[in-house]
Amino acid sequence: SSGINAEYGEVEDETEGGSTNTRFTILNENNCQKVLMVLIAALDTILLDLEWCMQQGVGEDPADTLCLHLTDLANVLGVLLSCRVPHGSAALDHLSRVIKRFYNTFTMFVKYESNHNHGILRSLEKLAKLVGSTTNQKLYNFLIYLEQTYGDDKGKRNASVIKRQAVSVPGIVYAVEQCERNLIILTKKSKTVDLMEFFKRSTARDFKIETAVLEERFNREIPEAEDQDQPKTKKRKRAGKSAENGA
After folding, report:
1. pTM for this one?
2. Long-range contact pairs involving 161-167 (C-beta distance under 8 Å, separation at least 24)
3. Which of 18, 21, 62, 174 qualifies as a cystine partner to 58, CB 3.0-4.6 A?
4. Quick one: DSSP state of residue 201?
């Protein structure tokens, strides 16, 4: 993931590429997105496996192992959230879905812990600290990066991208909210550990997509594109009439 970050650059940087992260000679501009898609698919599969394990029911020791897996995933996603994955790419769409799944899986784990009385795991405390202090902040910057799609004036080509992100971003924000909500519930039950200690103001309160504005822009872009094609059609008609007169 650090190699992909080095190839694409970081969302906090104004320029693409040029990251100080370690570069790998096997990665280049031509295959980076394919490698990223494989990595994201692997993360998605791991999250599905963790969800299945929790649905089957686990004991205290396996729960600790699941939590450690979630911690590893949070670390990898933290790097990917910093990548300037190209707007409108399949990789960016897939990454958005995996981010949402991660928070949903984390929420499922927190609910599981809340329904069992074996105390809060030390590994869960570390995971909550990691997500609250690092992952959430990188997610916030990632959502701002997604928002740049809306301000990119490239005409009709970005209309479908705008619509997709207008749906995916609120889903991510809702997943984060539910995760925080269940952490608060578990914290109140434990009365000993504050799992929300490292969580800042919810992203949902700071980030809002104005869908009405996006719809207005989308509807405006279509007529503009049609107007640009109209003069060419008129010229063709005139050319046809001239040929008939000449005959």
Report:
1. 0.75
2. 161/87, 161/88, 162/214, 162/217, 162/218, 163/214, 163/218, 164/93, 165/96, 165/209, 166/209, 166/211, 166/214
3. 62
4. S
